[in-house]
TrEMBL record:
Keyword Protein biosynthesis recorded: no
Family: Belongs to the SH3BP5 family.
Compartments, as annotated in UniProt: Cytoplasm
Keywords of the record: Coiled coil, Cytoplasm, Guanine-nucleotide releasing factor
GO annotations of cellular component type: cytoplasm
Composition-biased stretches (Basic and acidic residues): 19-41
Domain of life where this protein originates: Eukaryota
UniProt remark on domains: The N-terminal half of the protein mediates interaction with RAB11A and functions as guanine nucleotide exchange factor. Four long alpha-helices (interrupted by a central kink) assemble into coiled coils, giving rise to a 'V' shape.
Protein name: SH3 domain-binding protein 5
Organism of origin: Sinocyclocheilus anshuiensis
Major subcellular location class: cytoplasm
Subunit architecture: Interacts with GDP-bound and nucleotide-free forms of RAB11A.
GO molecular function, one term: guanyl-nucleotide exchange factor activity
Length: 401
């Protein structure tokens, strides 16, 4: 029994014939596949917009980080500026109070304040000269230490040259030259520091002598005006403390504002980078559209679509020449397997759902396939040969009629 007859339903069974059922199934599958491809095409048309929206919705982590830095800097600026305003207000209030109290004290003491003022001014200058003398002494001590260390380096280099007298190592020579240069520089610095120390020491001594002279000459007025100048010294100390606090807060505000500016500049750079990247993406999409639109699918799905299209084209090609047509001479006549049925089976090569409809008929066909494979033939070739023989018989029958 041929496979062609095994695929056909018995006459009068009430079920549709195999060829018609195969054609309808293939048409339904082809329509579903076309709908899928259309949906994919529609998705491809909207893919660019979706990707662009998704790209716009995604927030660069650098933006979040810089925004946090910006908010922190802004909060710190507000807090430090409030502290700075309070410090300035306190400084102005203390300055006003000190001036008011000093004026009141001066009005009580009278002219002795102005007479004793040169003495206190000389004391201030003598104190500054003493501080300068201390700084000059530190510089001189540092210069002497550098000069001593340089001389020790020269001594070490000379000993190395004496030990290697026969070889004359250039390393020791270079070290000796370097140490000699350092000794000369240290000697110059020592002499300069010594002269500076002598100068400021002399100034300090002169200031101290002037203070002593004024103290002897203005002894009475100095004692009388002492409360005024002591109060003034207290206010000056308080004002200096508040002034240093104001300066520190101003420096802190400047640093925080610098951080704020850096965060703003970083945000601008990130924004420019994102806009440039979006421009490159749009340009690339425009080039892809100009070159022919969306590319073909990738993977096994693409392979299945291509193979299904090839099989469908093969069926249409051979349908035009009369292959796979059924006889019109009654229900008991021999039917032929439609090539479209074969194509439908080939389209299902990756599925086993269609095997549920083939009970014993599938086993018979399988046995025939095994027998023919042992003889070195392919089942598909035998089926095509049977198609050709049956078509020849149909043509001969029609010619006799």
């Amino acid at each position: 029994m041929e496979p062609g007859r095994q695929r056909e339903n018995p006459p009068g069974s009430g079920e549709p014939e195999s060829g018609e059922w195969r054609e309808e199934s293939a048409a339904v599958e082809t329509g579903a596949r076309d709908d899928t491809l259309k949906n994919r095409s529609g998705d491809g048309g909207n893919e660019e917009t979706t990707n662009e929206k998704q790209y716009e919705e995604e927030l660069d982590p650098r933006i979040q980080e810089e925004l946090e830095h910006l908010n922190q800097a802004s909060d710190e600026i507000n807090r430090v500026e409030l502290q700075l305003d309070e410090a300035r207000s306190s400084y102005r209030r203390i300055l006003t109070d000190s001036a008011r109290k000093l004026n009141a004290q001066g009005s009580q003491l009278g002219a002795c304040i102005e007479k004793a003022r040169p003495y206190y001014e000389a004391r201030r200058l003598a104190k500054e000269a003493q501080q300068e003398t201390q700084k000059a002494a530190l510089r001189y001590e540092r210069a002497v230490s550098m000069h001593t260390a340089a001389r020790e380096m020269v001594y070490v280099a000379e000993q190395g040259l004496l030990a290697d007298r026969n070889t004359l190592d250039p390393t020791w020579q270079e070290m000796l030259n370097h140490a000699t240069a350092k000794v000369n520089e240290a000697e110059e610095e020592r002499l300069r520091s010594e002269r500076e120390h002598q100068r400021v020491t002399q100034l300090c001594q002169e200031a101290e002598a002037h203070v002593q002279t004024l103290q002897k000459a203005l002894k009475r007025v100095i004692i009388k005006s002492k409360p005024y100048f002591e109060l003034k010294a207290q206010f000056n100390h308080i004002l200096e403390e508040h002034k240093s606090k104001v300066v520190q807060l101003e420096e802190r505000v400047a640093k925080v504002k610098t951080r704020y500016s850096v965060a703003l500049r970083n945000l601008e750079q990130i924004s420019e980078h994102i806009h440039a990247q979006r421009g490159r993406i749009r340009a690339a999409k425009e080039r892809n559209r100009a070159r022919g639109g969306r590319s073909s699918p990738v993977g096994a799905e693409s392979e299945g679509v291509i193979q299904a299209g090839a099989y469908a084209g093969w069926v249409e090609k051979h349908r035009d020449v009369g292959w796979g047509r059924r006889e019109k001479a009654g229900s008991d006549s021999m039917s032929v397997i439609s090539l479209q049925t074969i194509a439908s089976d080939l389209e299902k090569f990756d599925s086993v759902e269609h095997l549920g409809d083939l009970s014993d008929v599938g086993s018979i066909i399988g046995e025939e396939k095994e027998a023919e494979s042992e003889r070195g033939f392919r089942v598909d070739d035998r089926i095509v040969e049977r198609e050709v023989v049956n078509l020849s018989r149909q043509d001969s029958t029609l010619s006799l009629q």
